[in-house]
Amino acid sequence: MWLYALQRFGMALLVCVLSVTVLFCIAYVIPGDPTAIALGPRATPEMREALRIRMGLGQPIYMQLYHFFSSLLRGDLGVDVWSNRPVIDIVKETLPKTMILAVTGLGWAALIGIPLGCYSAVRRNKLDDRIIGIFSIAMISTPSFLTAIYALLVFAVTLNWLPAIGAGEPGNFGDQVVHLILPAFAIGFAWVGYLSRLVRATMLEVLNETHIRFSRAFGLPEWKITLKYALKIAVLPTITLLGMAYGGLLSSAVFAEIIFNRPGVGQSALAAVNTRNYPVMMGLTLSTIFIFTMCTLIADLLVAALDPKIRKGL
Amino acid sequence: MKTLNLKRRHFLAGSAATIGLGMVGLPTAWAEGKTLKIRNYADIQNLDPAFNTAQADAVITDSLLLGLVRMKTGTEWGWEKEAAEEIEQVDPTHVRFKLKSGLKWSNGYGTLTAEDVKYSFERVANPKVQSPYIDDWATLDHVEVHDELSGTIVLKEPFAPLWTTTLPGWAGKIVSKAAMEKLPDQKFTTTMPAVSGPYMIKEWVPKQRLTLVRNPDYTGGETAYYDQIEVYPIEDEKAAEIAFESRDLDFTDISLSSLKTYKDKGMQDATITEHPALSYVWFGQNQENPALKDPKIREAIQKAIDVNTVLDAAYFGAATRATGIIAPGLVGHREANLTNFDPDAAREELKAAGAEGLKLKLSFLNKAEWVAAAQVIQANLADVGVDVTLEPLDSGTFWTIGDEKSGNSWKDLQLLLGRFSMNPDPAWATAWFTCKQVGVWDWERFCSKEYDQLHESGLRELDPAKRGEMYVKMQDIMEKSGSYLFLTHEATAAIYRNSVAPALKPDGTAVLWRFGAAA
User: CA-CA-CA-CA torsion for A154, A157, A159, A162, nearest 10 degrees?
Assistant: First the structure.
């Protein structure tokens, strides 16, 4: 297991380095002069040149990449070009908010989706299975931004039960939880359907396997067979999916952050791309890549821990 | 007789509800006191008046720092005294001022003096400081300090925008010399070392909220009504509108596309206000592009576009047609355009110029109103036989396509939709179309010596009537070049609770510290 973990960790590190390198190159290829955007029409050519030097844009790209990685090893992600704030501070402010949003969104989806899928499999082809199936597909088909807008209009504007914008009062846990409800609901909504369908499909496969039939023959209670034996196996692909989904949600949280005006990686990264604020852009992208890779790694290690066969091949 | 039958389950449910309420916090309205919740279209980036990055910064700086004079609120552009007790232009190059006594800096930096005024103005004018607003003090020679409270601003030559934009604007804000000299490089970004205005920053949570509270050391006269102003940076207008409807905001700008909806549905406890904006939007043609070199072709294209239909599509009827680049209410505003929609004439002129079947590309910022405007223009030009391809671009790309230093895209640029915002002086509209701006911000590559001379003279002419004639002529020259079709100055709209009395400049810009309660 340790060797497997070490190999997976090395692979994850390689993925991080390669992704950042590719993104770094792409960022410098896209058109748009950050000095013109940042300083506006009133800037003199001297001012623009000074900013270009401060941003290191005059150097060849390989030198810029070298400086980026060497600074990274010292824990320095650079400085926001416009506000002079360290990028690491911006990452520290935004990343936890996006991570919490993604965890909550996926968390409630898993809490409802997995049992729903399990129940569906047990009640295969019965009326309730069909109803769950229809609702699951409907949830998958509903675009998340639409869920977000309708949730806002119903719960914030019409009923006035929940706040429409922001992430809550800093230091006020209750307020932060209340501000989390609508965006988490919006980004997790479709995942309830996904998870329910996936768990149902894998459960049906497992429930037909020989060892389950043996268990039934031995007279074990149905609930025990379902929850203790079948679900344990059926949940494996779900764990992998959750790892991938979490990483995906980090990036798809951008729409929720814009609609709910919630500070986070997505909103800040979008603004950084629009203003060609390269240090912030790279810092936020790097942190997202890191989290995504770590989630996938943890999911793989969990699956390997539950299923020893996996450890044999990387 | 009923008895209280409290079961374990009821007790647990009740406890959970109590704990839940405690976590969530009771409704906060009753505890807020006089708090104003307002939207800013972006978060602050740099509050140093010499380096404000945008209006989002300036709107905050305005409540923190004083100037000698300030812009008036209301419907007409003008200025009034702020830190100055007396201020007078004694001759075209000398402005004498005397400060009010007892104006204080926060954080123990003493009183506001003429030395602070000298430091602040000369700092912006100093090329070594590299302030983007150096042109506001383009003709400043120095500031003479007579005593603690009085001094004279000495100019090298007359400067007409001094009273319209420099003194009442960002470059006219006074910072504390003592506080600034303690800072590395004598610069700050979001932590202001000392304030003299009615408010000070209590807390800034980046991307979430900026809280202003009364400055206890403020002795500037007119006091602010609200104890606290919470400023929420909300970039998306639609998100701000929803926040207003859900009562998370007391005041917000609204998009012109929502204006009609709000008017139609009517909100019982809210008021909508509309203002003509200062910005100017135009349709431009790159006159150095081979396809558009012939002025006859450019003139024909000018005539082929139905501006009123373009505006209806883009602004839902909320914006009126512009007659130039200088908005109504400002010196130099033009009464009428020289060119009008005439597709038949356009067809004939294109035929005469041998430009039938012309293929062109229209570049514009990828925003809903521009897309709508571009589509109408595309249809108008198709009607006269010009095939237009639309090129919507993200802001990062768009704002560099005509810039020679950013690559070669300026050579391929043909048609464009441009929009500049400006300060309330005509010189800030005409400055971007001089010959030295070709390939910098003048992407139509229009260059006229007569225009340049008029621009230079306009900066020094202090008689508003004579100055007005100059700017009218400059806009005529622009339009006659065929490279420009003036579309609109846009409009701004805002919505606020009936309990709020907003303080707005003529273009709808909020002056936060002067907001009050409705009578």
Answer: 90
| Mean pLDDT score across all residues of chain B | 90
CB B314 within 8 A of CB B417: no
Could you tell me the CATH number of the domain that includes residue B249? 3.40.190.10
Residue A216: its pLDDT value, please?
81
Identify which of A37, A42, A46 has the shortest CB distance to residue B396: A37
Cα–Cα dist B447/B156, whole Å: 27
- Residues from chain B that touch A276, judged by Cβ atoms under 8 A, are 396
Question: Which DSSP symbol is given to B103?
Answer: -
3-state secondary structure of B378: helix
Is the pLDDT at B11 greater than 60? The verdict is no
Q: How far is B501 from B158, CA to CA, in rounded Å?
A: 39
Domain endpoint, select from B154, B186, B218: B186
Question: Do A126 and A52 have their domain in common?
Answer: no
| Interface with A, mutate which of B26, B186, B246 (most A CBs under 10 A) | B246
Q: Is A38 exposed, middle or buried (0-12, 13-18, 19+ CB in 10 A)?
A: buried
Model confidence at B29, pLDDT cuts 50, 70, 90, reads: very low
Look up residue B239 and give its two tokens. 């998100």
Q: B250 and B391: one domain?
A: no
A121 and A163 co-located in one domain: yes
Residues B414 and B295 occupy one common structural domain: yes
Alpha helices (runs of H) in B193-289, residue ranges in sequence order: 237-245, 256-265
Residue A243 lies in a domain: yes
Q: Domain check: are B372 and B435 in the same one?
A: yes
Q: How far is CA B167 from the centre of its chain?
A: 17
The string of pLDDT tens digits covering residues A94-136 is: 888 898 998 899 999 999 999 999 899 888 889 999 999 999 9
Residue A229 confidence (pLDDT) above 90: no
Closest to B166 in 3D by CA, of B190, B131, B194, B114: B131
pLDDT at residue A116, as a whole number:
93
Q: What is the pTM of this model?
A: 0.80
> How many domains are contained in chain A?
2
Specify if A24 maps to a domain. yes
Percent of chain B with pLDDT over 70: 94
State which residues form the domain around A23.
Answer: 2-73
From chain B, pick out residues whose CB is under 8 angstroms from the CB of A45. 405
Quick: pLDDT tens for A236-255: 888 878 877 777 777 667 78
CA distance A310 to chain B (A): 44
Q: Mapping DSSP to helix (H, G, I), strand (E, B) and coil, where does residue B177 land?
A: helix
For residues A65, A71, A74, A79, the Cα torsion angle rounded to the nearest 10 degrees is -140
Phi, psi of B70 (to 5 degrees): -140, 165
Q: Does residue A299 register a pLDDT over 90?
A: no
Enumerate the residues of chain A whose CB falls inside 8 A of the CB of residue B406.
31-33, 36
Given its phi and psi angles, is residue B76 left (phi above 0), alpha (psi -120 to 50 degrees) or beta?
A: beta
Domain residues for the domain of B257 are 2-41+198-275+496-517
- Report pLDDT for B33: 61
Question: For chain B, what is the domain count?
Answer: 3
* For residue B250, pLDDT beyond 70: yes
Q: Of A51-65, A195-209, B394-408, B447-461, where does mean pLDDT reach its minimum?
A: A51-65
Q: Does residue B46 have a pLDDT over 80? A: yes
Determine the average pLDDT of the residues in B182-208: 93
Percentage of residues in chain A having pLDDT higher than 90? 22
A207 belongs to a structural domain: yes
The domain that holds B114 is classified in CATH as: 3.90.76.10
Using a CB–CB cutoff of 8 Å, tell me whether A93 touches chain B.
Answer: yes
Q: Which of A82, A153, A261 sits opposite B234 (nearest CB)?
A: A261
- Is B513 found in the same domain as B407? no
Distances (CA, A) of B220 to A196, B81, B161, B166, B450: 65, 11, 25, 21, 46
